[in-house]
Amino acid sequence: MSLLLLSLWLHLLGIVTWIGGLMYQAHVLVPAARRDAAPLAAALRRGRRVTWIAIALVAATGLYNVTWLGPLERMLETGAALLLAVKFMLVLVAVAVAGQRDFAQVPRLARAVAAGDDPQPALSAIVWLDRVVLLLAVVIVYLGLAVSRA
């Protein structure tokens, strides 16, 4: 097995873990949390470690994979450099949004649940942030495929 193949496999594994977990949470856990938010708050806290390991894996392998794209001159000629730059910027935005969700809104949800307050404002914020990350993920995957084919 070549190092590039291993890196691509780890990159895809990280993406599937991050986005797949987000999809599961958005379509299974959050709707159930509308009745009782305490289990969701606990699950989000436990899942945060897996999420951020996946994000780190995606970032590290993505940077490594870029080194295999070829000479910069060819990338500039084909337009792949611009696509790659846009992809990197969107990845940074997705990571920032995920950070806002995990380190601001999830603790806010946990505090609301612990205090017996209404968890709906925190749940609503989490839902919207998740939607933004999922939308960005679709665009990022498309750009990744476009770069690999350029």
Give a structural overview.
It contains 5 helices and no strands. By secondary structure, it is mostly helical. It has one domain (3-149). α1 runs antiparallel to α2, α1 packs antiparallel against α5 and α4 (80-115) runs antiparallel to α5. The longest helix is centred in the middle third of the chain and has 36 residues, at 80-115. It is elongated and about 60 Å long.
Entry summary:
The mean pLDDT is 91. The protein has helices at 3-33, 38-66, 72-78, 80-115, 120-149. The protein is 89% helix and 0% strand.
Features:
mainly alpha; 150 residues
| First-to-last CA distance | 25 Å
Percentage of β-strand residues:
under 5%
* Coarse structural class: mainly alpha
Tell me the domain tally. Answer: 1
Query: What is the overall silhouette?
Result: elongated
Low-confidence stretches: none
Number of strands: 0
Using the CA coordinates, give the radius of gyration: 18 Å
Helix content: over 70%
Average pLDDT reading: 91
Number of helices: 5
Please write the string of helix (H) and strand (E) elements.
Answer: HHHHH
Largest sheet: none
